[in-house]
């Protein structure tokens, strides 16, 4: 399969939206940021080259002024709250979860409050009141507490109002702005997924979009292989200049 044939379905999907007079909102969420690294610098340089804003899900317990200083000149980069310490409290045999029902409710809420306050203080020009649960998992009963902390939006993975996320969506008193396309092959090579499969997921999401829907791309800069970087570069190249695609800051998605 040639590179052109891999990417043509995405171009065709965007062309259909353009013909219909529509624009698709894309957004980029990158998880697990803590400090400046070579991988993070590469992500920041890539997004800057194509004028693609990015939302970094930052781990509050482990970050400090070094990352704040690195982002100072980048008004297109946002910082969201990635739990507290990215530590699983689930027992052996269960899926990793920091924000689960394995601890007292008060302990979880206090950690989220601490994470919110810490990141808002460290990143005043970049902070957005968005919670990104580690491993994209949160106990639904905790969601009602989020507005009392100051959160205005929640982001996990998958369709917002269907499948495993349906319960979260029903309980949410804040906006749910998810990611929908993951570039990583977590259950296999732990490198980049097949490019054609990622494109197919992106096209499927575009074709399913209703009013106000978005296409959320999920990345993890610390574990990217060269195939991920190549994919993102080509994705940005095909979409950033397309009239039916608009890369958005997540704060704009929260505010609209």
TrEMBL record:
Give the record's GO biological process terms.
Answer: carbohydrate metabolic process
CDD domains hit by this protein: CE4_u4
Q: Which InterPro entries has this protein been placed in?
A: CE4_u4-like (IPR049591), Glyco_hydro/deAcase_b/a-brl (IPR011330)
Query: How is this protein named in the record?
Result: Polysaccharide deacetylase
Native species: Sinorhizobium saheli
Taxonomic lineage is: Bacteria, Pseudomonadati, Pseudomonadota, Alphaproteobacteria, Hyphomicrobiales
